[in-house]
Amino acid sequence: MTFRRHAGMARSRASFRGSAGHAEAFQALVQNSSDVITVCDAGGRIRFQTPSVTRVFGYTEGVLVGTDLSLLVHPDDLRPVQKALLRAAAEPDATDRLECRVRHADGSWRYTETAVSARLDDPLVDGFILNTRDVTERKLLEEELAHQAFHDSLTGLANRALFRDRIEHALHRQRRQRRPLAVLLFDLDAFKNVNDSLGHGFGDRLLAAVADRVRGLLRPADTASRLGGDEFAVLLEDLVGPADATYVADRVLRAMRAPFVVDGKEVVTNASLGIAIADGETVVTADDILRNADVAMYTAKGRGRGRAELFKPSMHRAMLDRIDLEGDLRRAVARQEFVLHYQPTVALATGRISGMEALVRWNSPERGLVPPVMFIGVAEDTGLIGPLGEWVLEEACRQTVQWKHQFGQDAPETISVNVSARQLQDDGLVAAFARILAETGANPGNVILEITETAVMSDAEAMAARLHELKTLGVRLAIDDFGTGYSSMSYLCSFPIDILKIDRSFVSGVPNEPQKVGIVRTIVELGHILHLETVAEGIELDEELEQLRALDCDLGQGFRFARPLAAADVETLLVDQAAARRRGELTVFAPAAS
Ligand code: C2E
Ligand code: CA
Ligand code: CA
Question: Could you read off the pLDDT of 415-426 as tens digits, one per residue?
Fold first, then answer.
């Protein structure tokens, strides 16, 4: 390479070394510099280097003289070096700075910062002076810092900033290539529990293991990120169609379901995942697609966790509604905006009221009287079921004690309260219930806690322990909605339960459907063998009542007798019941037309 300011320029051909005196002064000046000063001719051939070249680049002093500069420069940096020399030649008074990699004598590349100035008119130099400083350490530190700034230190995955950046670039490329891209967003369903019970160190190692598993699933072009906490995201590019994204989502979910071994301990987790796709048709930003994935993930959680949902615009509205509902419910729990309604259970043989089941309603100033299906799920997800459930038990106990005072032998004997799975997971539950029973003075033997079959069977071993603990309070336990879950007989025998409540779906239409008759008969017989009381839920019709009586079911509940009633209506019913008893009748309820 040749660098000339312009052709035909008058120039002395005196060699650098030839000009004694000046050269010595110059050498003295640069002898102790930590920089390497290189003088090369207009053609880029090295003519002189300071002795510091040995210390900095490992070459014996002088061996590089005569070598072409370009042989020392990293091939990728040659163009910037050439440009800098050209610029310097054009502007002799200016000094140009550039970064380039220079080969060390040991073969490694060192990062340098080099100042270039041209002295083509100076007969003493007749070329370029390069002042080179090794900045490798600083450069590596910068790279390290940049990596840290864009990666999550725990998992080594991209952090949120880098992930957003990758999405922006992908969206940009998509505008040309028109291939759909997808963001998958997921978090672990029980991570908080793991962290709380096994410690943060353990939680961190679990997250690192999750990251490794995710990395293992992806193609090199995909980006995985930890956005924070237990929230992970994956960017998939160049998809053929949305089905590709759901396919990867399923693989991620399956990978998360397989047990992790951390510190020699096996942990089972589950993830909820949201998918958002940009198909190139509507213009979106990284934030749009991340928000959509978030909404879809939120929906996946609401629909039962452990699953993936593909974003749909309607999810937005649903999520906002749900957030409103959560906020309102939180306030409602603080203000105790709830009331209990009571539905009688009736002895099928006599028609006498045997007990009441407390069913909660939310008496909302804005929403009116809200049925439990609308808010129990949200209360469970938010943990509000804890305080709400305690309020329900306390109010039900208080009420049953009051009725006992008021109606004596005509008062309902038992009071049933529903307890959800989430409440049973709470270690403080039994102590709280003990306190409530003691404070209200309710007779524990007449308090029935109803737990759905699905809740009991979800984690049968842990539940068995908790149910035994509850039994120490002296209460009775009922399995609710029996027949809808998958009870294992061995568990059923080992649980300390007292009552089976046959789900409404087997009761409704029972005389006309032989299969249901068979199921109900089996459950009633099972109950008798295990010494459990049986209750048929949802009896609406005389025929159903007759059939259940014929099948020897002990108790019944349903609109055929009474709907859930406000406390005042229960009192009217109890007054009638007392009057009926005084007349020598067993029941207030009309006999079935047989
Ligand atoms: P569940 O415990 O199975 O309660 C029975 C539900 O069936 C009640 O609905 C009741 O009104 C309804 N029902 C009773 N008889 C009949 C009938 O003959 N026909 C029909 N079609 N329905 C009948 P509700 O009050 O809306 O409660 C729904 C569910 O909400 C309850 O189901 C229970 O799982 C839950 N729940 C209610 N209160 C509480 C509570 O305090 N805590 C918890 N954790 N859950 C509660
Ligand atoms: Ca119930
Ligand atoms: Ca039920």
Answer: 999 999 889 989
149-172: average pLDDT: 92
Contact criterion met (CB below 8 Å) for 342 and 565? yes
Strands annotated E in 70-222: 96-103, 109-119, 127-134, 181-188
DSSP 281-320: SS---HHHHHHHHHHHHHHHHHTTSS-EEE--THHHHHHH
Asked whether the beta carbons of 505 and 540 are under 8 A apart, the reply is no
* DSSP 3-state of 350: coil
Residues in the chain: 594
Residues 231-287: pLDDT tens digits? 999 999 988 888 999 999 999 999 999 999 999 988 888 899 999 999 877 768 999
> 315-324: long-range contacts (C-beta < 8 A, 24 or more apart)?
319/295, 322/298, 322/378
pLDDT band with cut points at 50, 70 and 90 for residue 11 = very low
Query: How far apart are alpha carbons 539 and 343 in whole angstroms?
Result: 12
- For the stretch 207-214, contacts whose Cβ atoms lie closer than 8 Å and that sit 24 or more positions apart, written own/partner, are 207/154, 207/155, 208/154, 208/155, 209/260, 209/261, 209/262, 210/155, 210/256, 210/260, 211/154, 211/155, 211/156, 211/157, 213/255, 213/256, 213/260, 214/157, 214/252, 214/255
CB under 8 Å to 148, separation ≥6 — which residues?
none
Q: Does pTM surpass 0.85?
A: no
Task: Give the containing element (helix H, strand E) for 479.
Answer: strand 476-482
The kind and range of the H/E element at 3 are none
Ligand with an atom nearest the CA of residue 453: 3
Regarding the beta carbon of 272 and ligand 1, being less than 6 Å apart is answered no
CA–centroid distance, residue 112 to ligand 2 (Å): 76
**Residue-by-residue DSSP string for 491-550:** HHHHS---EEEE-HHHHTTGGG-HHHHHHHHHHHHHHHHTT-EEEE----SHHHHHHHHH
Instruction: Supply the residue whose CA is at minimum distance from atom 20 of ligand 1.
Output: 538
Nearest CA to ligand 1 atom 12: 538
Smallest Cα–Cα separation from 375: which of 337, 428, 413, 403?
337
- Give the closest residue to 3 by CA, choosing from 114, 121, 99, 131: 121
Ligand 1 proximity of 559 Cβ (cutoff 6 Å): yes
Residue 428 neighbours by CB distance under 10 Å = 10
Residue 503 CA to residue 481 CA, distance in Å, equals 4
pLDDT at residue 26 greater than cutoff 70: no
Q: Which two tokens stand for residue 111?
A: 């990062």
State if residue 538 touches ligand 1 by the CB under 6 angstroms criterion. yes
How far apart are alpha carbons 357 and 346 in whole angstroms? 11
Q: Is the CB of 68 under 6 A from ligand 1?
A: no
DSSP, res 363: E
Identity of the amino acid at 47: R
Record the tokens describing residue 275, joined without a space: 């998918």
Q: DSSP letter at 478?
A: E
Burial class (CB in 10 A: 0-12, 13-18, 19+), 401: middle
Nearest to 464 by CA among 419, 495, 420, 500: 495
In the numeric block, which tokens belong to residue 72?
């020392």
CB burial readout 535-559, b (16+ within 10 A) else e: bbbbbebebbbbbbbebebbbbbbe
The neighbourhood of ligand 3, an ion, using CB within 5 A, equals 480-481, 537
Give the pLDDT confidence score for residue 21 in this predicted structure. 56
